[in-house]
């Protein structure tokens, strides 16, 4: 299994990063637009040597070689390939194989290894933010939906709205413009992964939004 260890950032580093972000984001700031380079960001967020030394002692104490540990450029994310038994010793945990149906048409089963709980030695708790995979379960994929052309549901997602659906919803399948030159349009907008529901798309709410009745 692949174990990810997220090293805790120093409060001073987080505060300094916040200052850099604020200064680069506000037009009134003399440093507006002067964003950190990738190298500068990695240098800023790099953990202290003492943190990595403590984590190394912990990992090697469980019989795992430090040479097997990989890290990103900032060295704040450590990755190591372990046998389940080694991870159990390292985290004082007991892992289980969990399986569940994904709900998709091919009936694939999702199989993962997780622990109900885990524990870190007091000597390194302040140096580690998160270790995974441990007790957190992944989000299940959405259940399969009906094929397009099937029965109309009561809700829809903005990513699958088609003109035929809208005409059926609002009873305008046989409607034609009395004046072809009339500028008539309908727009549905969303942001930050939001979606549109029937309640948002009711004729009353659309009329209220557009000012037409």
Automatic annotation (TrEMBL):
Pfam hit, one: Pro-kuma_activ
SMART domains cross-referenced by the UniProt entry: Pro-kuma_activ
A GO BP annotation: proteolysis
Domain called Peptidase S53 activation: residue spans: 1-137
Lineage top rank: taxon: Eukaryota
Xref: InterPro entries: S53_propep, Tripeptidyl-peptidase_I
SUPFAM superfamilies: Protease propeptides/inhibitors
Single annotated GO MF: tripeptidyl-peptidase activity
Official protein name in the record: Peptidase S53 activation domain-containing protein
Species whose genome carries this gene: Haptolina ericina
Lineage summary: Eukaryota, Haptista, Haptophyta, Prymnesiophyceae, Prymnesiales
């Amino acid at each position: 299994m692949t174990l990810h260890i997220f090293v805790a950032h120093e409060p001073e580093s987080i505060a300094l990063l916040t200052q850099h972000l604020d200064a680069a984001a506000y037009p009134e700031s003399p440093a507006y637009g002067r964003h950190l380079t990738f190298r500068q960001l990695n240098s800023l967020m790099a953990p202290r040597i003492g943190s990595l030394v403590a984590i190394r002692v912990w990992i090697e104490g469980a019989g795992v070689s430090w040479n097997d540990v990989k890290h990103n450029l900032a060295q704040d994310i450590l990755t190591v390939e372990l046998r389940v038994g080694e991870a159990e010793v390292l985290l004082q945990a007991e892992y289980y194989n969990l399986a569940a149906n994904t709900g998709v048409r091919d009936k694939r089963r999702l199989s993962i290894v997780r622990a109900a709980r885990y524990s870190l030695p007091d000597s390194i708790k302040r140096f580690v933010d998160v270790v995974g995979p441990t007790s957190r379960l992944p989000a299940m994929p959405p259940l399969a939906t009906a094929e397009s052309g099937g029965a109309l549901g009561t809700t829809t997602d903005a990513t699958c709205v088609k003109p035929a659906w809208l005409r059926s919803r609002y009873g305008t399948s046989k409607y034609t413009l009395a004046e072809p030159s009339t500028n008539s349009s309908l727009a549905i907008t969303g942001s930050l992964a939001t979606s549109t529901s029937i309640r948002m798309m009711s004729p009353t709410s659309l009329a209220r939004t557009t000012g037409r009745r």
